[in-house]
Amino acid sequence: MALLQHTVACFKELIPPLDSDEIWTDRRGVLLEMKSVPWPSPWECRTCYPDEHVIVYSVTPMPERTEVNYEGVWPKNQFVAHGTVAFFPAGLPFVGRSVGGSNCLLRCGIPTNYFEELIQLDGRWTARQLMATADITALSVQSTLRRIAEEIVNPGLASALLIEGLINTLLVDITRHLDGWAHTTPERVGKLAHWQMQRIEERLENLAGGLPNLEDLGDLCGIGSRQLMRAFQATTGTTVYEHIRALQLVRARRLLVRSDLPLKQIAYELGYAHAASFSAAFRRESGETPGNFRRRQRGV
């Protein structure tokens, strides 16, 4: 069956039958849209965002074999996987394709002048830098986007102020991710093998009683702690500490909403020595106490 061809200039034109489920804008011109998208099966499209950089976060799993190729920068048949989070630079046409399906997306449109003041790339993107945009695996980025999506769907007190702050955090984290790729090469910084990342993730599945140190994680991977730090950041775009912190935050929200465990027990499960340390860390990351978050999510 031949692929369904589309030529589009923006996200709305790509799926014209759908209106945005939720739309949010701020004074800087940032546009957030939550959409439920029934992709054709299969499909291929050419897209360009002329006036904005676009961050796409897949709230639900992406359809299988969703891939992108930057025309004129990468070889014609070189497609890479579109991850849970992808960043599309303004003015760069790309081809997207997939076997089709449906999912829910959060689309963040960032005005070019605002974001380029941070990344300082003047619109010039190398093939290697673009490799860093298609699949952003940093948990700090994914956690922030998940928080933005939650706030758009279920806004609380001072929601606009919170979203603006989260957008700032998101842009800084993505800038760091892109900057890390811009200043490294595959020859200078090696990445962790799949089995090494799997061992780390398996160890981090259980944080109860205390966090592992770098030496412990390095031993699991058969490398020293310094090499682990460099290789982990090259692989994920974030540091080991930031990765663990993001994991703690995601699990904390889940436990607060889905369980009746007291804060002391949740703190222990997440590797904190004291409930007060957990509460302070949660408030620093989320802007509210664990108790307030639990009550708000439960509508109390």
TrEMBL record:
Residues 194-296 form the HTH araC/xylS-type domain. One of its GO terms (molecular function) is sequence-specific DNA binding. Gene3D superfamilies: Homeodomain-like. InterPro entries: AraC_XylS_family_regulators, Homeodomain-like_sf, HTH_AraC, HTH_AraC-typ_CS, Tscrpt_reg_AraC-type_HTH. The keyword Transcription applies. It comes from the Bacteria. Keywords: DNA-binding, Transcription, Transcription regulation. The keyword Transcription applies. This is AraC family transcriptional regulator. It comes from Steroidobacter denitrificans.
